[in-house]
């Protein structure tokens, strides 16, 4: 087909963004029909740690309604995630070789699974741990009564961050398939990866205590180790043979 010009790349990007936005819009409409159930699901970890007799609160007239819209938007993105990943693949596919384009289905499948696993880890592990930590400062003269806006903002940030972090095995899978990374390279740089992971954990977490950072760093280290195994399994045999010669 030949190389695409810069304007053709921009037009292709515009097309993929528009298609993704339409998919998100459809997902938002579908999610808004169940917005109360989604709302209850999102705030369930926070309700568990609230002191007896306290509830979530809002102080602005339109804050609660705006929150339901935001929740529907996040849910719409999650629903549309497979289609969005497919659009990402369609955008990068023209720059790939013919034998690499066959990975469209695995890319959509693995990236979607990774995002969902990250969202589940956030909901059932990371976010409840953070809310339990914040609620631990509750005392007789200090009552924990969080506003719904900041709580959901923190939840959404963790959701996006962990959804992206759990893409690590998928990224390594395709980099290994394209001969851009090897298991030997990943294992050799493990100590540097751990250092970078703890720096990222310190940036992501709103508190600086080691326990909270470990909650985020532990899954990243685990994903890195899984990525090493994946690179070893799917790495091209020729690349492995050449590595052995170099050793």
Beta-strand share of residues: under 5%
The helix content, as a percent range, equals over 70%
Whole-number total of structural domains:
2
In DSSP terms (H or I, runs of 4 or more residues), the helix count works out at 11
Category by helix and strand content = mainly alpha
Largest sheet: none
Distance between the termini: 40 Å
Task: Give the rounded overall mean pLDDT.
Answer: 83
Describe this structure in words.
With 247 residues, the protein is an all-alpha fold. The protein folds into two domains: 1-165, no CATH class; 167-247, no CATH class. The protein has helices spanning 6-32, 35-49, 63-79, 81-92, 104-135, 148-165, 168-177, 183-188, 190-204, 210-234, 237-246. α5 packs across α6 (148-165) and α9 packs across α10 (210-234). The longest helix has 32 residues, at 104-135. The relative contact order is 0.10.
């Amino acid at each position: 087909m030949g190389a695409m010009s810069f304007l053709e790349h921009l037009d292709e990007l515009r097309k993929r963004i528009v298609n993704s936005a339409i998919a998100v819009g459809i997902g938002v409409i579908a999610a808004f029909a169940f917005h109360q159930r989604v709302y209850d699901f999102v705030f369930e970890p926070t309700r568990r740690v609230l002191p007896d007799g306290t509830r979530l609160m809002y102080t602005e007239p339109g804050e609660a309604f705006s929150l339901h819209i935001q929740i529907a938007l996040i849910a719409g993105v999650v629903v549309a995630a497979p289609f969005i990943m497919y659009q990402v693949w369609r955008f990068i596919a023209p720059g790939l070789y013919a034998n690499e384009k066959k990975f469209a289905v695995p890319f959509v499948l693995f990236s979607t699974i990774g995002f969902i696993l990250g969202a589940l880890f956030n909901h059932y592990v990371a976010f409840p741990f953070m809310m339990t930590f914040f609620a631990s400062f509750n005392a007789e003269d200090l009552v924990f009564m969080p506003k719904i806006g900041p709580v959901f903002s923190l939840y959404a940030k963790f959701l996006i961050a962990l959804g992206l972090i759990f893409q690590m095995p998928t990224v390594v899978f395709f980099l290994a398939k394209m001969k851009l990374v090897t298991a030997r390279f990943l294992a050799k740089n493990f100590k540097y990866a751990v250092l970078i992971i703890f720096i990222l954990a310190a940036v992501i977490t709103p508190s600086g205590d080691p326990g909270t950072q470990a909650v985020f760093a532990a899954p990243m280290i685990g994903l890195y180790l899984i990525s090493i195994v994946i690179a070893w399994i799917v790495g091209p045999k020729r690349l492995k043979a050449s590595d052995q010669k170099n050793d």
